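User: Let's play a game. I give you a shape written as tokens, and you guess the letters that built it. Ready? Here's round one.
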């Protein structure tokens, strides 16, 4: 099957059950988003958690209660069907992965669309910088760190980061490029020693896929929206839905719509 060429085509293929793959590198130039779906009685506190931690949790859109349409970033789309894969959590436990959450949808649910670092990768490529997981056809490597987010009463989490290897003389350029994309995690949160942020072995990812390092490269880490999934696991809400890591919602927003 051919590669989707527009956000609408990706969403339609997902809706038809014809696309279940990681989304990095797809339809370059369009904003991708993490998804969190929670009952209404937790929605305000989760919003506060995101506002206290804007680096990993930059909010792009919030749906109306019971309405699956993300009206700001993709009018007409349906967050119940238009992502490649979802995760279902009950009391903080992952109980199922699925490609369609309509059977689980309830009238009290609220969807949060949260910025994703896939949205600045096209700018990195345009600047002549490598994006190794795209080169290798993999999902981005992601790791839990020893950096704590600012908690609320029920939500807390270690910061999760995504990683891209770069040569030292490429790092400043990467910082300048990604700094402009403040609503999709912005500039890196750490450069260099993984151990300094609690990552013992770079080859052992917590989410996604390990990638190749070439001689002289250093790891560069960006905040990651999967942080929200660790917050859900800790909070143990009676019910929650998220995207599967690396399988994002592809919106109609252009990357440049979110730059400084």
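Assistant: Ready! My guess for every position:
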């Amino acid at each position: 099957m051919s590669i989707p060429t527009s956000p609408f085509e990706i969403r339609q293929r997902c809706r038809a059950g014809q696309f279940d793959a990681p989304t990095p590198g797809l339809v370059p130039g369009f904003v991708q988003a993490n998804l969190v779906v929670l009952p209404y009685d937790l929605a305000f506190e989760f919003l506060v958690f995101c506002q206290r931690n804007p680096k990993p949790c930059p909010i792009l859109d919030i749906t109306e209660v019971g309405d699956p349409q993300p009206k700001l970033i993709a009018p007409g789309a349906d967050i119940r069907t238009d992502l490649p894969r979802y995760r279902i959590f009950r009391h903080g436990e992952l109980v199922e992965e699925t490609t369609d959450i309509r059977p689980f949808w309830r009238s009290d649910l609220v969807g949060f669309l949260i910025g994703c670092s896939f949205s600045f990768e096209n700018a990195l490529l345009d600047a002549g910088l490598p994006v190794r997981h795209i080169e290798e056809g993999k999902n981005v490597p992601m790791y839990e760190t020893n950096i704590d987010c600012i908690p609320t009463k029920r939500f807390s989490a270690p910061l999760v980061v995504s990683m891209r290897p770069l040569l030292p003389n490429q790092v400043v350029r990467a910082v300048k490029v990604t700094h402009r994309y403040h609503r999709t995690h912005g500039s890196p949160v750490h450069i260099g020693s993984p151990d300094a942020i609690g990552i013992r072995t770079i080859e052992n990812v917590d989410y996604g896929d390990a990638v190749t390092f070439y001689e002289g490269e250093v790891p560069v880490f960006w905040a990651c929206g999967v942080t929200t999934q660790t917050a859900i696991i800790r909070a143990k809400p009676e019910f929650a839905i998220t995207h599967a890591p690396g399988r994002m919602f592809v919106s109609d927003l252009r990357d440049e719509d979110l730059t400084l």
